[in-house]
Amino acid sequence: MATTSSTPPTPRLLAIPQPLRRLFNAFPLQTLPPNALPHRAPPSTSSSSIPRLYIFTDNADDGRPSYNPSCLKAQAALRIAGVHVHVEPSNNHASPSGALPFLLTETGQVLSGGKIFDLARARGNLPTVKDARIQAYRALLDNAVRPAWLYALYLNPRNATLLAHLYLPSNPLIAIPTSTTLTQAASAEILKTTRTALISPLDLLSSYREALEALSTLLGEDDWFFGDVVGLFDAEVFAYTWLVGSLEWDDGAMEEVLQEFGNLVRHRERLYQRCWGHVGEKVS
Amino acid sequence: MLELFVWDAAFGLPSIDAECLATIAYLCKTAPASSWRLVPSNDPSLSPASHFPALNHDGVWTSGFDNIISYLTSHGLVTPLDADLTARQKADSKAFKSFIATRTAPLLDLSLYVSAGNWSATTRPAYSKILHFPLTWTLPPLIRHEALQRTEHLGLAELDTDFDPNAGLHLSTGRESLPESFRRHLPVVGKKTVREEMTPEQATAIRLFSLAETGLELLEELLAEHDGYLLRPQLSSVDCFAFGYLALMLDAPVPRAFLKEWIGDKAPRIQAFVASMKSQCFSSPGQLPVPSPQNGSFPGAVGQMLDTCVLNAPGIGEHYATEKRHRREQGITGVDGRALMLAVSVMVTGVAMGYGFMYYKAMPPFGARVQTWRAARGGTGLSQFGDLGFMLNSALGAQSSPMANAGNAPAGRLAEMDSDVD
Question: Where does the Thioredoxin-like fold domain lie (chain A) (predicted)?
Answer without folding.
Answer: 69-159
